[in-house]
Amino acid sequence: MKFAHLRVEGQSTPRLAAVIAEHAIFLDDHMQQPPRDLQDLIERGADGLAEVREIVDRAIDAGAETTPVADLRHSSAVLRPAQVIAIGANYAAHASELKLRSETAMTIFSLWPNSLSGHGATTTWPDDLTTQVDYEAELGVIIGRPARGVHVRDALDYVWGYTVVNDITARDLQFSEAQWSRCKSFDGFTPTGPVVVTADEIADPQDLWLTTNLDGRILQDASTGEMVRGVAEIISYLSRSATIPAGTLISTGSPGGAGYSRNPQVFLRDGSTVTVSIGGIGSLTTHCRVV
């Protein structure tokens, strides 16, 4: 099942909707006590998701009115996540091209929630702060229940769903500072979406194809099977030292093809449009403005 936070043009408050064949069914049109957002739905557990599935199925069978998603505006596919965790240098090709070491331990950092934005949004940044803004196609993993001390073999049981992430990065800041959070956490630097797909629809998170299209040019084209550490290993590793709360978004790293490493270098610029796609989930488009 697919979910999105959608709103009518001119509205400021997104509503949680099930997305069926590119049409939206708003949950608050069919439930007396609808979840206010994806985080609320996740916190309701398996019974809450089962209730939503039943209600949506009944609505479809009854011929309920739907709205074409193309007529609506997207907010971030995740709202109010418990935390946003990112994994760095998790594809050998990407680590090599940026001259980063693949450490024995994972490279882990946080993304600030103000950086979240939705499909079709415009991300802006000041040219007096950064001139090397790069794209990074990443698989996003949403945790469904608190995970603590999870074995690798059981780790995927804790996944609620998957989404597309573009981990936009100010490279000049990244390589001038000792941490990676600020360079990746400008307002709008973490677009997610267009939907979250429930885990049951993704048979194997290590068998998905990622691409990045910048202004009509394919610059990243790889499989999640190329991850140095797969989704299950990431969850297990993180859960060994601290509980991963339900609703946590984990951005699992980017494959090779970053603009920084190209000759000549390719960066996001004023007027650029970048689309990150993952098979089985969807395509996430971001428009760029330099101010």
What's the arrangement of secondary structure elements?
Elements: E1 2-8, E2 15-20, E3 23-26, H1 38-43, H2 45-61, E4 67-68, E5 72-74, E6 84-88, H3 92-97, E7 107-110, E8 116-117, E9 122-125, E10 133-134, E11 137-143, E12 159-166, E13 169-170, H4 171-174, E14 190-198, E15 209-214, E16 217-223, H5 231-241, E17 249-251, E18 273-278, E19 282-290
CATH architecture of the largest domain: Alpha-Beta Complex
Overall pLDDT score:
95
User: Helical region count?
Assistant: 5
Q: Proportion of β residues?
A: 25-35%
What can be said about this structure in brief?
By secondary structure, this protein is α+β, with helices and mostly antiparallel strands.
3D architecture notes:
The protein is an alpha+beta fold and 291 residues long. Helices cover 15% and strands 33% of the residues. It folds into two domains: 2-74, no CATH class; 84-290, Fumarylacetoacetate hydrolase, domain 2. The protein has helices spanning 38-43, 45-61, 92-97, 171-174, 231-241, and strands spanning 2-8, 15-20, 23-26, 67-68, 72-74, 84-88, 107-110, 116-117, 122-125, 133-134, 137-143, 159-166, 169-170, 190-198, 209-214, 217-223, 249-251, 273-278, 282-290. Strands 1, 2, 3, 4, 5, 6, 7, 8, 11, 12, 14 and 17 form a twelve-stranded mixed sheet that branches. Strand 2 and strand 3 form a beta hairpin. The model has no long low-confidence stretch (mean pLDDT 95).
